[in-house]
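Working notes for the structural subgroup meeting. M.R. asked for a predicted model of this chain before we commit to crystallization trials. I am recording the input and output together here so anyone reviewing the notebook later can reproduce the run.

Input as submitted:
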Amino acid sequence: MDIELAGATVALDGETNPIVDAVLAALRACDGTIVEATQPADILLISNPLRPGTTAQDPRFLHADARKAAVAMAERGGRIVFLVSAVAGMPMRRHPRFSMENASILAGMRTLAMEFGPKVLVNAVGFGAIEDTTIISGDKAMLSHTPVGRAGSIEEAVAAVLFFCDPMNTYTTGQMLGVDGGWMAGYGRNF
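Returned structure, recorded in token form:
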């Protein structure tokens, strides 16, 4: 996917991982300029742990960081994209704490979208099982319940993030786009 950012600044708040690295590379290739998270940015990516068994940052701190960025963007406009696990939208019985933490982040994202629209668009991408050489997002158990029948690729994950960063996308806010091969649809839910 190719979008035209025309030098828009991009900041990252949170952890890096292979998906984040690929997203930043794609945004650079689309003429985005990567800046430190402490600097004002046109696009803020908020990266959260994507694998069960890891602990997300305290959602209150994430919300405060994102809100501070939204206040700075309020006059000129901007975008905030949360990178979360798909369990934000569909909890996994096997990972209750991780599911709850991600659902809380998703709720916070939606409150920011309501508060700062229309100038600041705030969305999330919820990743299911994404693999590189190993599963880097989600849980391998998701694969037996994914209608597409395979893990997603990093390129597919990046395309979803670029959709929310694209200047042509001016009407989508408060949404989580599930990049999970249909896992959230509930296919064969028995875990």
